[in-house]
């Protein structure tokens, strides 16, 4: 898996989805063959002004380091890679919303990582396992790289990536919460993580179920409560983001063992997060659905659910 | 579907008026704001490189109803969102002495990409619970960062291009096709191959009756292909809800399904029809039988029966005059 | 002692009133004409015995000549003068001018107020008009009738009411109601800062135009008049069931040395025979004229305050203007209950009509008073029923008023960038020269104002064309405005309506008036244009309108957008939203209505009504409920209990609807343990699906 494809282009480019899908053959999905790098580059459009942030080498290094570090536990690569990818591929949300950029990342820059990270378990003897196509070309919360970048973006607290790291350490958060529109409100995103952290601290069972239930609860309650009014937050400081992006020209590579710094575009007020944590915990605890389940578990015999600690 | 809220909500009209829009401090011509369509167009060719647009808005609430109602601490907020960038910005409005709620919402170029949505909600305390949504403006405004004219997008992209001379490699490979339908983008696109001899002149400038009838036949054929392709694209990307049933998608996919499903599965509600199609497609049973109906629905939208009839009559007349 | 209060003035007045020359008086008093002239010119005073002789000669009370003022009081003896029938036997069964109008308060308000505006006095201050509805009954009515000399009047009214013509029927109805209900509605229209009914009793002048003549429009040259006292005044009589209007005018220019309380009444009846004697139609209430040739004709009199009050015509101040009292006022379209005029409805109608027709004249700038102020009040036997309400134009025409105000304040813009802004464009009107003068055409620069329409504005998307005292001539939808253009309001000010001065303004005003038909409702080719103006005048109004439309499009039009991609034949086959929202006849059951509440256990208890397409087989439906999140998120809920209410039965989890029915309803209680969150935190959604398979 560590073959290095020849002629990695120096800078990122934009790969149209139609062209990308064309080359998404079964061979590519299984990792048996490399996508045709030359043809893909020819189908790609330049990304505009050249800048250090669009260089492929730093991203490539990160990806390789991730595959090396987490060879035995690839899901754990997410929490490590997300903040570092975000701090390396510095861009505005408007830029990150372009799927063509991510197509290029997955098909030209690091198809090996996509296969490594997302190839499913062997399910039959006749066919090789594949990575799902939407990890190469797909919506932001599915795409192998886009989901990491966006998770870091949505769950960071200003320059502090710790919350994002925590979020990416839980596959259910990445899977369920990232696609929830409610977390576009930053205090809601952080409050969701806080509630999870509190649950984890109490070592509740089936944390994943709690994540999913919590995400649904937050979305349902949002039809009657305006979180934006309960938990106000300043709009992000876009100048700070642009400054941080400009610093990419001179910034050293991101640290591999400690967290990098994100853009200083404003922290979320603790009071706002606390206000929502209180509501989310109350709703979650009062959930008749959850109580019923708790009751079933109790009836089945205490302690059974604690048999699987340390999720 | 009908819904109930667990507390009283405001019934009266909540009207939103965009008072003006400034790009980096300079006012946009008011003709770039359409109140009919609720669209603001932000793209001016002369000023493509702006950083922030500021939208000044004014909201009128049914004041008497709110005064008399069970709500307290009533506030009005404007909310700007864009799905593609996960952007969400809530701006509280302030109440003017004349009762109108006013404020402004910034649209940052870094946070928005193509189309943002601006909504207004009324929030208050009801039954001791603060922050309740008690009302919302009927419809959202669209803030279109890429449009020069304030119009809602209602049609597919139609691109006329010489496939052989295209920058897009995949089109070059398909240069022998007179047209192609691509449903992978944000909006479906029909590519017309100008390199296909005679196609463009026929579609754009038919003169004689025979030419016109041929034009109609070709156009309806292309449209039929497009509707079929769009239907398949729309039913293949369905999100499955918690209850295991497919959710109605948004955007063009919703339009396509709403227009075609009643002809594909007659006599069923949208939800029932969607579930039916989804199940047949996933378990394969009856999926091929359904193709006939999908084809029928697409042909109907593309008005193929009408154009075929016109063409046949034109032929008849041509023959008559030759005799 | 002022000139007017002098003995000389008094004497001159008596001479004039009695149509006696100085020489005749001198002869009667046995003295020289020069002596009388000396008195008249205040060069000498008569001795006491001469004073008495003078009083006797004029038939005045003793002392009148010394107190001067008392003389009139006594002198006034009022009579009803009914015009004799025409000697040729001709009979007229109604006033043709009044026939042009229905009894309609809106028309009345328009015509009467336009007249007041046209007669405005001091242009730096607004003309004020006030409409007062006053219902009289009982004693108050009786007193009023006495002052009206009802007993002299009544036989004529009764006689005229016997005809079968329209006027007579209205009159008969009016008398019947007066008899049955013993109540009478008066409508008084006051104007202030207006000229008043000046001029001589019978010769040319404002007074004669209103009181003595029909269709005398008295269009003074060069005045920005609309068409004052022409047809319009006939609406006053048209709105009286009895054909009776009383007047009290304060004159801007004295007549017979008097300003205040020139009063007269005029009655318009059809031909009639009373006590065997035929009468032509009109009658006047006034002082018997003693002038030879006019003997016994009722002429206006100078009333005292008491009389004015008794006839409900007292005025607020000495400011010039006229009060008209329409006796037996009515409105064909707004009768209310028989016998009880609907004061509120009539009040509203007047306010709305004033706003409709005069919002422009009532609009003020920061430093510019309005041309007009109007108010409406309603009373019953002197008690206020609806207090005087000033008509605020901005309440009715917010966008129009904003546009005009911006113009008056000079805060218009060239290009609209905000919703409250007003754009101004100048549209040239080339006024052709008069025929045969050889002059050159002059250019008038008319003003086009455009502003985005307000929420709830009535009838947007038109241009209001005005001239004169901001009088609306027409409202037109401009041509070729692109589809999808946002609603706007536009005003075109031409001629005097621009508020500007100059020969070209006057020329434009005259030209446009000449291009109006008698209805004054458009600018187009007229015979007058052809006759009066040089060649080319006939097409000028049309060219002007086209230029106005073009200027408007320039302001409201969007920048030309590039033709959208693709051949149009294909584009129209690919419209995405044509059917969205367009309901087809739904061939399946739907939820028509739900209501419900959360009970003590936290469950929703709901009542659900279904709309059912009729068919001969039963429908088997699965009611589904869920908590409805944002962006389509749902959390399914199960039912603890379902109960049939109407046209259906419950079959397990399903509802079986009886064949052939159009609606059905059932009740449901949700299963609390299936709630993802407590019910109070969520929006509940309910729908019905086709029942599927054999689930238990």
Largest interface: B-C, 75 and 66 residues
The secondary-structure class of chain B comes to alpha+beta
Termini separation of chain B: 62 Å
Principal-axis shape of chain B: globular
- Reading the helices and strands of chain A in chain order gives EHHHEHHHHHHHHHHHHHH
Average residue pLDDT of chain B: 90
- Spell out the helices and strands of chain B N to C: EEEEEEHEEEEEEEEHEEHHHHHH
Number of strands of chain B: 16
Task: List the domain count of chain B as a whole number.
Answer: 2
Would you tell me the overall average pLDDT of chain A? 88
Strand content of chain B: 25-35%
Number of helices of chain B: 8
Judged by helices, strands and strand pairing, the structural class of chain A is mainly alpha
Helix proportion of residues of chain A, in percent?
40-55%
Domain HTH cro/C1-type (chain C): 21-65
Organism (chain C): Streptomyces sparsogenes DSM 40356
Protein name (chain C): HTH cro/C1-type domain-containing protein
GO molecular function (chain C): DNA binding
Provide a compact summary of the structure:
Chain C: Residues 21-65 form the HTH cro/C1-type domain. Chain B has helices at 63-68, 169-173, 199-204, 209-236, 251-264, 270-283, 287-301, 304-322, and strands spanning 2-4, 15-23, 26-27, 33-34, 39-41, 52-60, 72-82, 87-92, 94-95, 101-108, 115-126, 129-136, 141-144, 157-161, 179-182, 189-193.
What does it look like?
- The complex is a heterotrimer of chains A (311), B (323) and C (696).
- With 311 residues, chain A is mainly alpha-helical.
- Chain A has helices spanning 17-22, 26-30, 37-43, 56-69, 77-88, 93-96, 99-109, 111-118, 146-155, 162-168, 171-175, 186-201, 207-221, 227-230, 238-246, 270-286, 288-300; strands at 13-14, 45-46.
- Chain A folds into 2 domains: 1-154, no CATH class; 156-233 and 268-311, no CATH class.
- In chain A, helix 5 (77-88) packs across helix 9, helix 9 (146-155) crosses helix 10 and helix 12 (186-201) packs antiparallel against helix 13.
- Chain B has helices at 63-68, 169-173, 199-204, 209-236, 251-264, 270-283, 287-301, 304-322; strands at residues 2-4, 15-23, 26-27, 33-34, 39-41, 52-60, 72-82, 87-92, 94-95, 101-108, 115-126, 129-136, 141-144, 157-161, 179-182, 189-193.
- Chain C is elongated.
- In chain C, strands 1, 2, 3, 4, 5, 6, 7, 8, 9, 10, 11 and 12 form a 12-stranded mixed beta sheet that branches.
- Chain C folds into 4 domains: 7-74, lambda repressor-like DNA-binding domains (434 Repressor (Amino-terminal Domain), Orthogonal Bundle); 79-389, no CATH class; 398-556, no CATH class; 590-690, Immunoglobulin-like (Sandwich).
- Chains in contact: A-B, A-C, B-C.
- Strand 1 (2-4) of chain B pairs antiparallel with strand 26 (684-690) of chain C.
- Chain C: This is HTH cro/C1-type domain-containing protein.
- Chain C: GO terms for molecular function: DNA binding.
- Chain C: Residues 21-65 form the HTH cro/C1-type domain.
- Chain C: It holds the Pfam family HTH_3.
């Amino acid at each position: 898996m560590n073959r290095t494809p020849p002629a990695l282009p120096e800078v990122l480019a934009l790969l149209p989805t139609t062209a990308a899908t064309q080359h998404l053959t079964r061979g590519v999905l299984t990792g048996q063959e490399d996508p045709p790098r030359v043809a893909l580059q020819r189908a790609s459009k330049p990304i505009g002004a050249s800048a250090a942030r669009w260089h492929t080498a730093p991203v490539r290094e990160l990806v390789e380091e991730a595959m090396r570090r987490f060879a035995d536990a690839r899901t754990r690569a997410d929490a490590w890679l997300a903040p570092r990818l975000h701090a390396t591929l510095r861009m505005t949300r408007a830029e990150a919303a372009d799927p063509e950029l991510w197509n290029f990342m997955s098909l030209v820059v690091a198809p090996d990582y996509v296969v490594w990270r997302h190839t499913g378990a062997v399910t039959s003897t006749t066919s090789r396992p594949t990575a799902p196509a939407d990890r190469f070309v797909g919506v932001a919360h599915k795409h192998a790289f886009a989901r990491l970048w966006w998770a870091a973006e949505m769950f960071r607290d200003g320059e502090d990536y710790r919350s994002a790291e925590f979020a990416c350490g839980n596959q259910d958060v990445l899977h369920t919460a990232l696609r929830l529109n409610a977390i576009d409100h930053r205090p809601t995103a952080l409050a969701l993580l806080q509630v999870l952290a509190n649950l984890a601290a109490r070592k509740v069972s089936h944390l994943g179920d709690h994540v999913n239930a919590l995400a649904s609860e937050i979305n349902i309650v949002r039809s009657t409560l305006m979180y934006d009014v309960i938990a106000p937050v300043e709009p992000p400081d876009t100048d700070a983001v642009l400054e941080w992006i400009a610093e990419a020209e001179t910034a050293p590579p991101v640290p591999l063992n400690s967290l990098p710094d994100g853009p200083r575009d404003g922290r979320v007020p603790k009071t706002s997060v606390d206000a929502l944590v209180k509501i989310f915990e109350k709703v979650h605890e009062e959930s008749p659905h959850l109580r019923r389940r708790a009751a079933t578990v109790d009836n089945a015999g205490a302690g059974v659910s604690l048999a699987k600690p340390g999720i | 579907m009908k819904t109930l809220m667990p507390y009283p909500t405001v019934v009266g009209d909540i009207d939103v008026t965009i008072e003006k829009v400034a790009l980096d401090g300079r006012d946009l011509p008011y003709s770039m704001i359409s109140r009919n369509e609720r669209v603001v167009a932000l793209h001016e060719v002369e000023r493509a490189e702006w950083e922030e647009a500021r939208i000044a808005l004014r909201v009128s609430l049914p004041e008497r109803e709110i005064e008399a109602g069970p709500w307290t601490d009533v506030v009005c907020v404007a909310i700007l969102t864009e799905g593609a960038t996960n952007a969400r910005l809530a701006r509280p409005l302030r109440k003017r002495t004349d009762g109108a709620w006013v404020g402004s919402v910034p649209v940052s170029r870094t946070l928005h990409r193509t189309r943002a949505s601006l909504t207004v909600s009324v929030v208050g305390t009801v039954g001791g619970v603060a922050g309740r949504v008690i009302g919302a403006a009927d419809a959202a405004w669209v803030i279109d960062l890429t449009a020069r004219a304030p119009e809602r997008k209602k049609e597919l992209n139609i691109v006329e291009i010489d496939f052989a001379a295209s920058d897009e490699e995949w089109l070059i490979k398909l240069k022998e096709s007179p047209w192609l339908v691509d449903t992978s983008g944000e909006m479906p696109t029909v590519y017309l191959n100008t390199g296909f001899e005679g196609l463009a002149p026929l579609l754009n400038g038919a003169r004689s009756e025979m030419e016109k009838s041929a034009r109609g036949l070709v156009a309806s054929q292309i449209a039929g292909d497009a509707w079929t392709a769009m239907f398949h694209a729309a039913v293949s990307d369905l999100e499955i809800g918690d209850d295991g049933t497919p959710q109605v998608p948004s955007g063009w996919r919703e339009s396509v399904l709403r227009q075609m499903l009643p002809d594909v599965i007659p006599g069923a509600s949208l939800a029932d029809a969607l579930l039916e199609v989804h199940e047949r497609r996933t378990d394969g049973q009856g999926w091929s039988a359904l193709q006939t109906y999908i084809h029928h629905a697409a042909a109907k939208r593309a008005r193929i029966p009408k154009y075929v009839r016109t063409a046949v009559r034109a032929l008849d007349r041509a023959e008559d005059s030759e005799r | 002692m002022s000139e007017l209060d002098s003995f000389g003035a008094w004497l001159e007045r008596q001479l004039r009133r009695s149509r006696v020359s100085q020489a005749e008086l001198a002869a009667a008093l046995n003295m020289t004409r020069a002596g009388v002239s000396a008195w008249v010119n205040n060069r000498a005073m008569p001795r006491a015995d001469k004073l008495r002789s003078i009083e006797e000669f004029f038939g005045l009370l003793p002392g009148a000549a010394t107190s001067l003022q008392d003389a009139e009081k006594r002198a006034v003896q009022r009579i009803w003068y009914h015009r004799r029938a025409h000697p040729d036997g001709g009979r007229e069964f109604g006033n043709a001018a009044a026939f042009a109008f229905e009894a309609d308060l809106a028309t009345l308000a328009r015509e009467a107020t336009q007249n007041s505006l046209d007669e405005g006095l001091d242009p730096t201050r607004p003309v004020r008009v006030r409409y007062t509805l006053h219902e009289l009954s009982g004693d108050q009515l009786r007193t009023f009738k006495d002052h009206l000399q009802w007993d002299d009047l009544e036989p004529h009214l009764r006689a005229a009411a016997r005809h079968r013509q329209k006027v007579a029927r209205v009159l008969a109805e009016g008398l019947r109601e007066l008899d049955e209900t013993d109540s009478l509605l008066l409508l008084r229209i006051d104007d202030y800062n207006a000229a008043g009914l000046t001029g001589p009793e019978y010769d040319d002048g404002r007074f004669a135009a209103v009181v003595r003549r029909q269709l005398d429009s008295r269009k003074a040259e060069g005045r920005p008049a609309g068409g004052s006292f022409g047809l319009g005044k006939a609406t006053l009589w048209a709105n009286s069931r009895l054909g009776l209007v009383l007047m009290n005018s304060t004159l801007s220019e004295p007549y017979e040395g008097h300003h205040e309380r020139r009063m007269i009444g005029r009655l318009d009846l059809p031909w009639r025979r009373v006590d065997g004697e035929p009468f032509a139609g009109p009658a006047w209430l006034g002082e018997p004229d003693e002038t030879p040739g006019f003997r016994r004709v009722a002429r206006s009199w100078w009333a005292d305050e008491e009389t004015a009050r008794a006839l409900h015509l007292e005025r607020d101040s000495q400011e010039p203007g006229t009060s008209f009292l329409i006796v037996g006022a009515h409105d064909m379209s707004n009768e209310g209950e028989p016998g009880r005029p609907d004061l509120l409805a009539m009040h509203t109608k007047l306010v709305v009509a004033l706003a409709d027709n005069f919002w422009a004249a009532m609009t003020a700038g920061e430093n510019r008073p309005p041309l007009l102020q109007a108010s409406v009040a309603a009373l019953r036997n002197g008690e206020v029923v609806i207090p005087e309400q000033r008509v605020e134009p901005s309440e009715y025409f917010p966008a129009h008023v904003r546009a005009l105000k911006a113009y008056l304040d000079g805060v218009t813009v060239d290009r609209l960038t905000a919703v409250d802004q007003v754009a101004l464009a100048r549209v040239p009107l080339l006024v052709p020269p008069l025929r045969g003068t050889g002059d050159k055409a002059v250019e008038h620069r008319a003003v086009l104002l455009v502003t985005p329409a307000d929420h709830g504005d009535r009838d947007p998307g038109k241009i209001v064309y005005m001239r004169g005292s901001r009088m609306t001539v027409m409202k037109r939808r401009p041509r070729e405005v692109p589809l999808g253009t946002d609603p706007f309001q536009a005003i075109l000010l031409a001629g005097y309506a621009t508020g500007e001065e100059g020969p070209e303004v006057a020329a434009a005003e005259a030209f446009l008036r000449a291009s109006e038909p008698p209805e004054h409702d458009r600018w187009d080719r007229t015979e007058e244009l052809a006759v009066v103006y040089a060649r080319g005048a006939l097409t000028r109004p049309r060219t002007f309108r086209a230029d106005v439309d073009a200027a408007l499009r320039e302001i409201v039009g969007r920048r030309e957008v590039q033709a959208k991609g693709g051949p149009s034949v294909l584009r129209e086959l690919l419209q995405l939203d044509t059917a969205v929202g367009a309901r087809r006849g739904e061939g399946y059951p739907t939820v028509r209505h739900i209501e419900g509440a959360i009970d003590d256990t936290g469950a929703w208890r709901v009542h659900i009504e279904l709309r059912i397409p009729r068919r001969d087989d039963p429908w088997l439906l699965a009611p589904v409920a869920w908590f409805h999140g944002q962006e389509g998120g749902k959390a399914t809920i199960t039912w603890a209990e379902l109960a049939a209410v109407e046209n259906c039965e419950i079959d397990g989890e399903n509802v079986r609807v009886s064949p052939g029915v159009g609606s059905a309803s059932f009740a449901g209680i949700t299963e609390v343990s299936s709630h993802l969150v407590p019910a109070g935190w969520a929006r509940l959604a309910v729908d019905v699906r086709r029942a599927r398979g054999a689930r238990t």
